[in-house]
Design brief:
Sulfatase maturase (chains A, B, C, D), Sulfatase_Mod_Factor_Kinase (chains A, B, C, D), homotetramer, EgtB (chains A, B, C, D), iron (chains A, B, C, D), Four Helix Bundle (Hemerythrin (Met), subunit A), paralog of FGE (formylglycine-generating enzyme)
Amino acid sequence: MHRNQFSPGSTPDASGLACEFSALRSLTEALVAPLSDADATIQSMPDASPAKWHLAHTTWFWETFLLREHAPGYTLHNDRWPFLFNSYYEAEGARIARGARGLLSRPSLEEIFEWRAVVDAAMAPLLADPAHADLIALGIAHEQQHIELLLTDIKHALFQNPLGPAMWDARSSPPALTTAAMGWHQHPGGIAMVGHEGAGFAFDNEGPRHRVLLQPFALADRLVTNGEWDAFISDGGYAKPRLWLADGWAWVQSEHIRAPLYWGEDGTHFTHRGWQQRDPHAPVTHISYYEADAFATWAGARLPTEFEWEVIAAAHDPALGNQLDRASPPLPSGSPGLFGDCWQFTRSAYLPYPGFRVPDGAVGEYNGKFMSGQVVLRGASCATVRGHSRASYRNFFYPHQRWQFTGLRLAKDLIQ
Amino acid sequence: MHRNQFSPGSTPDASGLACEFSALRSLTEALVAPLSDADATIQSMPDASPAKWHLAHTTWFWETFLLREHAPGYTLHNDRWPFLFNSYYEAEGARIARGARGLLSRPSLEEIFEWRAVVDAAMAPLLADPAHADLIALGIAHEQQHIELLLTDIKHALFQNPLGPAMWDARSSPPALTTAAMGWHQHPGGIAMVGHEGAGFAFDNEGPRHRVLLQPFALADRLVTNGEWDAFISDGGYAKPRLWLADGWAWVQSEHIRAPLYWGEDGTHFTHRGWQQRDPHAPVTHISYYEADAFATWAGARLPTEFEWEVIAAAHDPALGNQLDRASPPLPSGSPGLFGDCWQFTRSAYLPYPGFRVPDGAVGEYNGKFMSGQVVLRGASCATVRGHSRASYRNFFYPHQRWQFTGLRLAKDLIQ
Amino acid sequence: MHRNQFSPGSTPDASGLACEFSALRSLTEALVAPLSDADATIQSMPDASPAKWHLAHTTWFWETFLLREHAPGYTLHNDRWPFLFNSYYEAEGARIARGARGLLSRPSLEEIFEWRAVVDAAMAPLLADPAHADLIALGIAHEQQHIELLLTDIKHALFQNPLGPAMWDARSSPPALTTAAMGWHQHPGGIAMVGHEGAGFAFDNEGPRHRVLLQPFALADRLVTNGEWDAFISDGGYAKPRLWLADGWAWVQSEHIRAPLYWGEDGTHFTHRGWQQRDPHAPVTHISYYEADAFATWAGARLPTEFEWEVIAAAHDPALGNQLDRASPPLPSGSPGLFGDCWQFTRSAYLPYPGFRVPDGAVGEYNGKFMSGQVVLRGASCATVRGHSRASYRNFFYPHQRWQFTGLRLAKDLIQ
Amino acid sequence: MHRNQFSPGSTPDASGLACEFSALRSLTEALVAPLSDADATIQSMPDASPAKWHLAHTTWFWETFLLREHAPGYTLHNDRWPFLFNSYYEAEGARIARGARGLLSRPSLEEIFEWRAVVDAAMAPLLADPAHADLIALGIAHEQQHIELLLTDIKHALFQNPLGPAMWDARSSPPALTTAAMGWHQHPGGIAMVGHEGAGFAFDNEGPRHRVLLQPFALADRLVTNGEWDAFISDGGYAKPRLWLADGWAWVQSEHIRAPLYWGEDGTHFTHRGWQQRDPHAPVTHISYYEADAFATWAGARLPTEFEWEVIAAAHDPALGNQLDRASPPLPSGSPGLFGDCWQFTRSAYLPYPGFRVPDGAVGEYNGKFMSGQVVLRGASCATVRGHSRASYRNFFYPHQRWQFTGLRLAKDLIQ
């Protein structure tokens, strides 16, 4: 699992969970169907993991926390694999270095699929038991997270290949959209409630629900587009130090950054469907926090706080909610949003909410695994599994990272 | 200058400024009196600068922004020195790499002192002119900051020498204090005002003054001591991953951190007076944000936010204010607080306040020079010049940095 | 090709070449038969290449230098692949960074086999043409070299996997040998002839044949064994700086070297057949030049020069020749020498012979591709293809490299 | 000491030694007279040492190996200084990291001079004792080596300063020479004797004297000049991979090498007298082995072996000897050869001679301190102390190093 954990207040429905479990496990496998054993083995950078590793790690989670603990008589499918597929659970023992995951040509992709089948079969009785519902809901959310990471990691891996291999076939583009003038959701400021509460699964970092004080502000009603980013570049955006945070400017210079990740020559960008023309009306993606901040400064705006974003998202459900919906399904074919919407940077550092408590136990080991220096992203991307999104959901990355589907929604102060 | 700038609302008194200017320039030179040309030349790491460089850079500031702009007929003392002693003002042209400052054996310390005298003499007419009062107040604050950096940088440089040279003579220790039981300043939460306002100098990053919402909390009435830190170490604090932020734990392991910076064997630590016995009742210093956070977790507490700190500091002036006062004067001898109080970590990321605007112009270039990933420290240290402290003052460093006099004041939630 | 080139004086027999070509191409494919697509894709360090890359690169050689130049009407199988599979021939255009070869999940292993089949078929008419005999002999030697590299590179890759996967099945060990007392081939010194001359293929770096002056010396009649290396370790060999070259000692300390590469706990080592017990009577392998030199110093001996080795090898053909013969065939199963003999370090820096001239043209680009700082190894290893060995053969690596089958034969001065 | 040791066969004259000792110690101090404490403290790279360190290290040598061992009642001037000023004598205990020498602002330059005076006085009785003559001769040779290093290291340090400070005043240039056509010393090949033998000091690595076999060759009668190097650059010498050794080409690209070290714009170069115009007729200096080899290839020639150089040097004493003589005196002013002749690269790897034995004991610790990957240079430079040169002298550096006065004398094969 990436880093979040479930909220103990959630009470999922057991029969629904069994159905959801089955659908999710199938989705995971459908998504990797185009990958060869070799595709699924390579690792392009330490931040990313091989697709095979994601398939195995999610399975390790079910085996470790459900089957080993709660399925009488279950024996580990292979007792040397936990060393390979544990991510960072200290309580679960040693594990290989993160950067060495790409050298695991064995076990093969086929062996991992066999393991998945064994685990799925063994899980059946537990899925019906309400005593495990919380843990199963957590495992589902965990695997949903890894689906998104799998998709972004394999995109990064294929991008390294000079042949520019496509994971899925190209298809006829949707008719070109036009970019609407940017509208603004205005908010008068004041005390607001944020954070998750009530029924339904949420990660622990989404709570406790608490009051925050907002200044009067406005949040854009759409994302910044590729075309707008082209204008930023044309205006010398990457060459003007005053637009950038000091560490952002250092990053631009040391890494020779001149455009979003995956942008190529002549208006192209690399996608799961290989090299394609960029749509100037589509949201820009694969930018870092540094780039998002510089663009906002250039545009005379700023990044929203995570609470400004959440308050608008919760209130403007019809508008924003639809966007989330459209963005969600990362299906292997036909999804109109696959190159669509994205996680949106906020200016908020990733910190625990007031009153947050670290739960005990192995699964809960990472509820308090906060880091310094990461920023919160809100929303969801075209690679997020449908149903995994919430207005209170908090994603977080380091400011230089941009291999996720990351984009930008502007905010500004209102005169008080 | 380090990074902050003046608040336009301040209205310093011109005749007071002339007096303050003179006293400060003398203080700077008195502090470096024990240093040889070689002492003042060396640079122990890119984060630190040579003492000579600080002496020159502050002088460059006066020459560049006051004399060159406002003193008719003034010609640069040496027109090749700005390349050496500009820190990062892009508008002021190119400059040598930060890490190469320690190779500047020329100009000599004596030549820098001559330059200082020339500039001080040329400044006299300007000091009396109210039109320059704001800029002069800024220059004074700038030089005050560099005095603190000079003191912490030279300490770090001398520490590298296996001979452990002392900058000042050792002296008889004050009678050993006892550590009082930790008391707590309680606060019921609610809306509070923070940030600078009104007369008196402040940096731009201390405003605009604005409302914040506080949760009920308590702030410790004293700092964590060396003795308490010994207990943390004895309890295996540096060996328990669950106490640490994830990136803090990675830092502890890769850097083999086992104690605060400057701690030696057998209860000693390195000081400006050479190697000395640590006082278990004195505040712990030279810890990183990672260490501060881990200690707080170990102690069942947490770090305060910067606003919790400020609200208590403003309200408890008699208590906290005295501490600041005691800590302030970094005199070359006799100061009882020299190894005393310290900057205190908060959990707040360093971000601009709502409504903050970046000023125009060369001096104002860095008002908006915010970085990501830095945390706010509040208070002042034994190396802070008397008069440079304010309840609204915001210092900031990266979470791994600890060569400043950095310490820890605990906070905790109150049950709502 | 690794780095060597053919000697223009060689005159191979065309019909023999066709037979040799066919056998070699089959051997290459038989050796990789146990590898999956993923096994053949991964790259464990920049020094090593993926097995798939070796299969493709050798095929690229035939296509580029034979088919493209001399087969009328031949069109490249895929015109984007040369970018991937050129090694370093500047005249043949750009190529991907060496360290990025392990990210090429595409083309697949199957596609490479198809390419091999197409190229093999197209080669048939050229094999019969004596005009191409020299170039074909060179291509054969080239592919022979890559077979050895493929075997050592895949061993290194599988070694990274904590599961310790075996490429071939374990088999019953041969009966344990005993270690004979070390005998010495004595030589009185004087003028000797070294280097290749006459019929038969050789690389350019083996000539011109020339005179050298030898001091009286003796060369051991067998290799240093694992058991003898155990004694070196037991005697603190890795902890005594006086035994080591200065840069060797720095390497031991920075890399924490304590034993040959692939040595495990409890007398084991990693092999193509997985983790096995070491035979104390077998030659030690996978040592660096630094280790070889330190052992020789410890043993009161020294490394031979390359000419001492060659003169003895040429003279003692019955004895040494048999060893070479036994070492040669790297068959996928059943080879008694697979864990047997090894390349032997000399103290000679790798330099061109007197009168050496760099040939013109693309294939000849690398005849003069000498490097500084490499040392010559003589002999052949258990992974060397039968027929690729010669007394005049010069192999060469950097002093820290040890993933080849590298071992040690001692020499000593005779009193004059 | 750098790395060499004395030859036990040498029998210096005691009264001459006392005189030589005194003159040398004075010369060392005269050379550093222009340096400030800060100049003498800084270290520009780990390969180089501060001037103050050289002054102290040579003094440490006398104190450690002569006074401590042989002067009854002598006590160490400061018992903590050996930790600072030991270079790498393992038998003499721990020492600070080489790269940290530039942080030693204490002891001051003045304190080092005081130490030198104390040691010089204490040495007086020992200088007259023939029993110590060998060791004293070694100490003199050791200090001679460090004078050369001191001069090249301080040049490198001052070069880092953008002000380009001069160590000595500029002076009127000698009248421009013309470059003579290159003549050749021809040699018919055959057996020759090389290495030191007989009376007079020599380092151990210069023996044993032994026979070598030479091929017919010719050695240039003058060095390659700056003007000839300009032609190499104009012809694209730094942009043609075929001219370079493979590792040389990698070095050129990674380090962006385009000219010798210290070359500036518009025909200038940096010298001990600051930035000066280059003399096109003067020998090129400050080139690496890679550059020397590439130039030789470009010129249709090659580097000589160290034995070719030695045989010609010994035979053509009148011609070559004069050159050495002219090059020798590194006087603080007035030396016509200060920017003159230089060490000359050979293609020979630095290896012990046949029959070389490592002596026992602390002083002899480093006779066997050979490294791999270094090349031999012959001759002497303008910074070599008069009297330190010999035809058998072997200097050695890594192929990328070029902060010494290194240049190039061409060689070529004669047709047999």
